[in-house]
Amino acid sequence: MCCESKRRFLLLYATQKGQAKAIAEEIWQQAGAHGLEADMHCISEMDKYNLETEKDPVVIVISTTGTGDPPDTARKFVKKIQDKTLPPDHFAHLQYGLLGLGDSEYMFFCNGGRTVDRRLQELGAQHFYDTGLADDCVGLELVVDPWIDGLWLALKEALQFQKEKEGMNSAVDTVSNSLSTALHAVHELNLSSEVQNLKLEDEGARASGVLSQKLDDISLVAPARDTEPSLVHSVPPVSQSALNIPALPPEYIEVQFQDAQGENPHLSSLTSEGTTFEVPVTKAVQLTREDAIKTALLLELDIADTAFEYQPGDAFCVICPNNVSEVEELLHILGLSGKGDDLVCVKVKQGTKKKGASRPQHIPERSTLKFILIWCLEIRAIPKKAFLRALVECTSDVGEKRRLQELCSRQGASDYTRFIRDSNVCLLDLLHAFPSCKPSLSLLIEHLPKLQARSYSVSSSNLYQPGRLCFVFNVVEFPASPSRPVSRKGVCTGWLAELVAPLLHPSKNTLDTKGESSSTEKISIFPRPNNAFHLPADSSVPFIMVGPGTGISPFIGFLQHRQKLREQHPDWKFGETWLFFGCRHQDRDYLFKQLRCFLENGTLTHLKVCFSRDSSTAEVAAPKYVQDLLRLCAKEVARVLLKDRGFFYVCGDKKHMADDVSNAVVDILSMEMEADKLEAMKILAMLREAKRYLQDVWS
After folding, report:
1. CB atoms within 10 A of CB 298
2. pTM of model > 0.70
3. Disulfide check for 265: which of 269, 294, 547, 570 has CB 3.0–4.6 Å away?
4. How many percent of the chain have pLDDT more than 70?
5. Which residue has the higher pLDDT, 430 or 2?
6. Which domain holds residue 689?
7. What H or E segment, with its residue span, contains residue 302?
8. Has residue 139 been placed in a domain?
9. Which of 131, 164, 197 is the last residue of a domain?
10. Distance of alpha carbon 232 from alpha carbon 107, whole angstroms
11. Is 119 a domain residue?
């Protein structure tokens, strides 16, 4: 079918890290096979489309970032459609289908997509296809794949409906009925996380095959028994199925090695976030004992000679490199060991079939090969199915080729989730597991995402320590597993720990350690202000802080700031302050024992601590977790929130703490108000809406 005879639809995407764009590109690629033509644009390119006059169906793929915000590329679009002066029939002519991407680990799941969807509905736009909400917590593909499958029928029905509206046919009622049928057929595409979790848990209950491996060459061997699947081995029904695999993504990047010498770009060119600052690390302190389960470090940066500004509660980002030894290993596997320092030129391949192909913004046009692999590409990223599909073409062994096809196929969806996604497998792991796979450098640039800067909460106050910025982090550890035979440290935390190793002092558990030698090591940072997670503007308002583990980090800045304000303004009225802190062991990972100092000088009114792994000989068991402490202080917590109109801050792990804390607050409100749980949940929702219940959490 020639291009002119294909029916057009508008395809818009709004992406933060590339997921939504990749899914939109998959839709664009599949459209031709269905006799359709997708006119694809980033939603920010408002000069290339016009929803006010758009007559064809519109498909929108949009992600969510931050605390439920639309991605940066959608900010102008969202601001435009949220204009209060727009009439309720502004988009009455518009038919659209929307696919939202999110992560149910976070409070405002898919809120970027929901925001756009809700506003389009308010302005009169009509769904031609049910909204899909894909959850990265259990696997986007669980919703994305069936949503795309059902899209084509709905699009054709919508286009036919549009055609008849224009007077080209008279059977409007018939088409309306069939459109209704199409809508009902896809009604269940918004799959719930709970159902999918049950499915995954059921599949995960089967013991995974143990892969033997030799550490000298890290060769993976399939289990002797054929009853257990693994990364490299499948069992029926997958091993005997005819496979539905994704279309092969078109190649679009060309890499040319050059003899000329040249300099690498400055690290500031790697981010579009505005000004970056190269600052020295002046202090490093290990806050945990050597025998603690996690290693927590405090780093101090000298920002005195920069224009970097922050408030307690803000975050900032660190531009970090990939592990150099992993890059060397990757170069070796690719047969490029001697070419790491060679200059390469990256450009779009002539004659590519990829629509709107351009060199990725995070890849410099000219730099050394090592610069691209160390600073530009997320080589630890979990490979997407499109990448696996492309790797099939680079694999010579028939068995390995088949297994890669299975892992990217519809039939192998649960194997992909279990052995790649949930196992945190990266490109290096795949290349070890499938040794006949030899991808090109251009393929890596096409499929590996941008190496993202890592975000950290500020743990200091510029009022208390002028010209200094402190932050605290755990050194992340990824233990070895059958699918990943080598243990690894986090990309950024591992690099920072190695960088400051010469600075670490024997003295532990103090912010005021003296005698650390000055460091010449510098890191590049840029600000990431938090619009809400700040101290109350009115100093007389009381507040509660809940921060177990490194979640205490921003509250150190809060307390430092409050202490200086008390010293500078003795005539001000200051509200009471509560801190709930928890860790595993009092003697191993009580990060800031000098919290007692804040308590003694009156900055901190109430300090409640618990230790989850310490044994107790008391008749009444001591509280183990911060939510237990909150329940013991139920009356005071309810008073601060309800009577005194105070603030409530939570910082730390989302999966294992933040939800438990919010549940505890609901229970407290229900009990103290003598109301049912639903009413208590409404009160908590109102506190969130009023920005009085605030979270800074991570998964």
Report:
1. 25
2. yes
3. 269
4. 87
5. 430
6. 543-697
7. strand 296-302
8. yes
9. 164
10. 36
11. yes
